[in-house]
Structures are given as structure tokens and as C-alpha cells.
Amino acid sequence: MAAALRKILTFGSMLLPYGVHELRRRLSSRHKISADVARSLAGNRQLAGLHAGQRCFILGNGPSVKGLDLSRLQGQNVITVSNGYLHSDFDKFQSRYHCVPQITYGLMTSEDVIRWFEEMHSHLGAAELFLSSTEAELVRKHNLFAGRTVRYLVLGESFDDKRSDEIVDISRPVPRVESVPVMALMISMHLGFKEIILLGVDHDHFLSSSYQYAFDLKVQKGMDSTANADGTLRTNRHDDFQTLARLWRQYRAIANIAKANGIRIVNSTPGGALDEFDRRPFEAWFEE
User: Fold this and answer.
1) What is 35-286's CATH number?
2) Could you count the other beta carbons within 10 Å of the beta carbon of residue 55?
3) Residue 69 in contact with residue 97, Cβ under 8 Å?
4) For residue 152, is pLDDT > 70?
5) Per-residue confidence at 216, pLDDT binned at 50, 70, 90?
6) What top-level branch of life does the organism fall under (predicted)?
7) In 10 A of CB 226, how many CB atoms?
8) In sequence order, which ranges of the chain are alpha helices (DSSP H)?
9) Distance CA 149, CA 127 (A)
10) Where are the domains of the chain?
């Protein structure tokens, strides 16, 4: 039955609107939960409210961060993402948590991911790590991140199917994300943070026609399926706008959840295109 359905969707995807592509993506994202992941999810339940009432900074990797004095984050609760350990002054502030979403394999092979994870482990200090459950077997098989707390999220549902404004419970399957800051936002709300500040969450490549970082990539250089090594985009406007529409719906859903639960999310990114949250200059947080 499942095989027949896949054949129908493969043929239909060439004829029908974008919704079929989305349905195929959801079906292909389903996978069995291993014992390691099940234990991790149980542990995630105990994280609920761990930082109740506190403030955190989610540090993205957009080029806008180059103009910020990140050393001011020293002593703050910081959540970094993906290659964020390459930020200038990372050794001064070091993140409490680090997030990596589901990995798209293609240009990046399993061997490349292993090298990336090894690089990540050598730079992250004592940060606790959140990965997608799709990488759990790779981590186990190659004994990666030895001695580090590694937690998993099962990313497979859709924000479009979420009808509740309750905080997303990361001890259960959660919506798949279009960009890692959304994953970090779900985690930070589950942890109980009541004030969440976004930095370096630019999302303006569709305006500049270039995807840049606040630093030079190392192991991952040239392995982005959406951009060339020089930052020029590989995707067309049609595909970009489909992705951006899903991404903005995810941010809108997060904003509604925050509002319903008394959580304040503020965008302190200098510039950028994200307009779902109130703005405040980065420097203002240290003048109080």
C-alpha cells in the first residue's frame, strides 16, 4: 500500500500543485524512533521549565552579527546554532546550548557530517547539544560527542497541522523546521525562558540574492545545497518563496504561542527581513 502510494505521488507531483510536494516531504520524514532517541525524549521532559523566568539569547549566523560586540554575551544564557561556534569571541561567551536541525544529505555525505560533528565537538566547550533524531544512529555508530550531553528532537510534523497555542513539548515529536532558529525557539520556550532575544537571524538572502555568514565556514564550506561557496544562490525565486512562506508561517506560529504563554520574543538583529517580532537594539539589553 505504501509503495503504491509513493508511486502515485511521484507521478502526481509532476502534474499537481506544490501541496503534493509537501505531502511527499512529510511522508519521507517519518522514521522509527530508536531506544537512544526514546531515552533522550524522556530526558527532554525533565527539561521543561528548567530556566523558568530567565532570559536567553539565540545567536544566529547571519552577517549582521559582524557589527556586534559578542563578548557582551559573557555570563548570559546563549543558544548557538549550526556553525555558530565559529563566531568571533565565542571563547569569551560560550553557549549553554547548541542546536543543529535535520541535515539535508546530497552535497554533504555521511563522512562530511562526521567531520563536521568532530569539528563542532572540538569547539563547543561545555555546551549541551540538540540534534535531530535522524542523526542519532550516526552519532552512536561513530561514538561522536563523547562526554558531551546530546539530546534529540524528533522533527517530523508540520506547524501547519498545529492547532494549539500550547508550548511545544520537545519530549514528543515536534514540527519540522525550515530554519534552525525556529528549532532554538521551540527549545528555549520548553526550557522556560520568558524573554528570548534573537541575534543574527537575517533571512534576507531573497533580497540580496546572496547567502552569507558572519564567519568563514570550515568543514561545511561549499556544502550548502541552496548556495554556492561564494554565497550566490542555487535556488530560483519560485522555490525560495515556497520555503519562505513556510518559514514565516512557522515564525507566526511561534509568535502566537509566545503571546499565549506570556513569553516575550524580541528581534535584536541589526537589519534583516524577519518582521514577526518586536525590535530592540542589541546594546539596549546591557544599559539596564
Assistant:
1) 3.90.1480
2) 16
3) no
4) yes
5) very high
6) Bacteria
7) 14
8) 2-12, 18-28, 35-45, 90-93, 110-123, 136-141, 180-190, 205-208, 237-260
9) 8
10) 1-30, 35-286
